[in-house]
Amino acid sequence: MSLLENFTEDLLEEAAIEILGELGYEYRFGPDIAYDGETPERKDYKEVILEDRVKDALFRINKEIPKSALNDAFRQIITFNSPSLVENNRYFHKLMVEGIEVSFKESGLIRTKKAYIIDFEHKDRNEFLVVNQFTIQGIENRRPDLILFINGLPLVVIELRS
Asked: In this structure, what DSSP letter does residue 21 have?
């Protein structure tokens, strides 16, 4: 048998995880971080954002902004007001790239600053994670082969085929 005949989707998934590991991605197995897994990071299978990782990133990247304002930034990340998926994606992209406007009191004055969820200038301040077999419950259940998270946000979904 040739290599191609023995090359399975599982081998491709393992190779992709290994390559991503070499690029600095931490690896987690989806069932382990599910709400009923060994080290849960989700409240249920409908949740796709890794809330604690997102909040940790906001606090790590925006140390000069009070926690209450960063909690407001988190609420803006997870709140979508439009019934249009396209509009919600544009809104989220703007928050991710341009920052999230937050207000807070400082020395008796109200200040407005931008909080960032991704540090584009200092790569080492970001957390890169690859998760395989991450079950998502919606209208239909899905379990993509790989999801790439940056600071707890699922930004890339990969379906592999042998």
From this structure: H
Phi-psi region of 133 (alpha: psi -120 to 50; beta: other; left: phi over 0): left
Residue with tokens 């290599």: 3
Which of residues 85 and 161 earns the better pLDDT score? 85
End-to-end CA distance of the chain: 16
Q: Tokens 């008796």 sit at which residue?
A: 108
Residue carrying structure tokens 């957390």: 127
- Decide the pairing of beta strands 26-29 and 128-132: parallel
Q: 3-class DSSP state for residue 55?
A: helix
pLDDT tens for 85-113 read 899 999 999 999 999 999 999 888 999 99
DSSP string, 56-117: HHHHHH-TTS-HHHHHHHHHHHH----S-HHHHHHHHHHHHHH-EEEEEEETTEEEEEEE-S
Which tokens sit at 86?
């396209």
What the block records as the tokens of 103 is: 């207000």
Which residues are bridge partners to 102 per DSSP?
113
Alpha-carbon distance 151 to 155, whole Å?
10
**Backbone phi, psi, residue 102, to 5°:** -130, 150
Asked whether 127 and 24 are in contact (CB, 8 A), the reply is no
